[in-house]
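Regression test case RT-17, inverse folding.

Input:
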């Protein structure tokens, strides 16, 4: 079985390869093709993979190419984990937004829109090529903003593209852990959009254990989301929000915290990763050790500003291994071998949330088998959550329309309608600021 990884020179590729190395079963991936635009990044990551494979018999064969069509031909699965504009682009997304007093996070608010506007045309081109060159392949999209990018690709690939994110699994795992439940046995009632969802229940053997958590202040305040949102707010909501909702519920504080840091997340990662890729050019570098050290630092500092705003302290040691690669592998196995699994994924709504149309990509538990991912029926969201989901889906649709029509006015509309952008004038300035710094937005007229 052949797996093609787009963004194959990306820093998180060794996580995926590491997960593949644990898979010894029949029908596993035997061939990995890394694709990237940048040769030196491919070389760096291939070095890490070589060291990973050295201690494992029959490790999947790895090749690398900068030719996209060649990478796609004959693929059974395509992982898309690209970053249009690189981490410098991410840092610029943050800087331009913060200068206007709004959030520049890569998936939420103005930053997410800017990143979406330059990623969608590239993702659509990839989707078209997959449809032509590997029509039977399944595409697993990691590229952020993951819900929006998956929806853009689904217009060309239908349900053969599935978006993934590790934050809902991580959230479910943390809740199960504090409740003393086995995460594998727990049914997590989660729904929303990517980075905009809520856990409304966690059932073990048919019994909802979430009320027990909400009733116990010590338990509730003991894990990441309890510390971020505070016990009182979680009780008011009667649900546990995805950590990215911190940017909505505490927007003023997070914007201020990001304005005050010496380096934003994007700027920090741009420097950190540049050092790693530089180090990989030294012939004597210990690739796997350097990669792991860099990864550990990245994990430890994840959402540091949010945690500081909330006085949440350091991350829990158990939360430091995201699980992104495990979701990807579980999804691939379920499809390739018809090993039925329930996973929280980004798929087309198809009536799951009645307030959205059938083609809107949402994040929801799905039953996965050889025929793909099928969203399960869930209870409707409360009005306040429906309001946010509809507003943000409306914005995503404007981003898709702007990318398709190349219309600057539509791009302004996308920014202006976002609940975290508070003025049409700000939206106009954002479009100006972003088109000034991003060559990838030159298409907007
Ligand atoms: C979480 C999010 C991902 C994001 C990742 C890394 O897992 O769900 O969407 O890519 O964190 O975040 P970072 O700030 O380290 O790039
Ligand atoms: Mn994510």
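Golden output:
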């Amino acid at each position: 079985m052949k797996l093609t990884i787009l963004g194959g020179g990306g820093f998180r590729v060794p996580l995926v390869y590491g997960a593949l190395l644990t898979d010894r079963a029949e029908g596993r991936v035997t061939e990995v093709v890394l694709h990237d635009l940048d040769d030196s990044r491919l070389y760096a990551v291939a070095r890490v993979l070589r060291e990973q494979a050295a201690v494992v018999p029959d490790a999947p064969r790895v090749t690398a190419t900068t030719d996209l069509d060649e990478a796609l031909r004959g693929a059974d699965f395509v992982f898309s984990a690209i970053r249009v504009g690189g981490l410098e682009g991410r840092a610029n997304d943050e800087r331009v937004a913060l200068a206007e007093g709004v959030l520049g996070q890569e998936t939420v608010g103005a930053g997410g829109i800017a990143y979406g506007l330059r990623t969608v045309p590239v993702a659509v081109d990839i989707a078209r090529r997959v449809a032509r060159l590997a029509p039977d392949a399944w595409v697993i999209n990691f590229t952020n903003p993951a819900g929006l990018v998956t929806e853009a690709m689904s217009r060309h690939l239908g349900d053969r593209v599935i978006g993934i994110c590790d934050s809902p699994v991580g959230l479910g795992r943390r809740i199960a852990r504090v409740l003393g439940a086995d995460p594998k046995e727990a049914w997590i009632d989660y729904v929303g959009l990517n980075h905009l969802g809520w856990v409304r229940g966690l059932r073990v053997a048919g019994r909802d254990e979430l009320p027990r958590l909400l009733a116990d202040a010590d338990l509730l305040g003991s894990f990441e989301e309890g510390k971020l949102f505070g016990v009182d707010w979680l009780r008011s909501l009667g649900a546990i929000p995805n950590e990215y909702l911190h940017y909505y519920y505490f927007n003023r504080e997070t914007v201020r915290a990001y304005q005050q840091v010496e380096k934003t997340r994007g700027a920090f990662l741009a420097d950190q990763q540049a050092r790693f890729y530089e180090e990989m050019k030294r012939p004597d570098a210990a690739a796997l050790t350097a990669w792991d050290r860099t990864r550990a630092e990245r994990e430890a500092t994840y959402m540091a500003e949010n945690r500081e705003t909330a006085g949440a302290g350091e991350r829990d040691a158990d939360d430091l291994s995201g699980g992104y690669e495990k979701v990807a592998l579980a999804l691939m196995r379920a499809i390739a071998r018809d090993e039925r699994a329930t996973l929280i994924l980004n798929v087309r709504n198809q009536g799951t949330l009645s307030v959205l149309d059938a083609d809107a990509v949402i994040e929801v538990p799905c039953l996965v088998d050889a025929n793909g991912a099928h969203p399960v029926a869930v209870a409707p969201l409360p009005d306040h959550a429906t309001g946010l989901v509809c507003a943000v889906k409306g914005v995503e649709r404007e981003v898709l329309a702007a990318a398709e029509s190349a219309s600057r006015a539509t791009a302004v509309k996308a920014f202006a309608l976002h609940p975290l952008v508070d003025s049409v004038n700000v939206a106009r300035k954002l479009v100006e600021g972003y088109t000034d710094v991003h060559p990838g937005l030159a298409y907007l007229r």
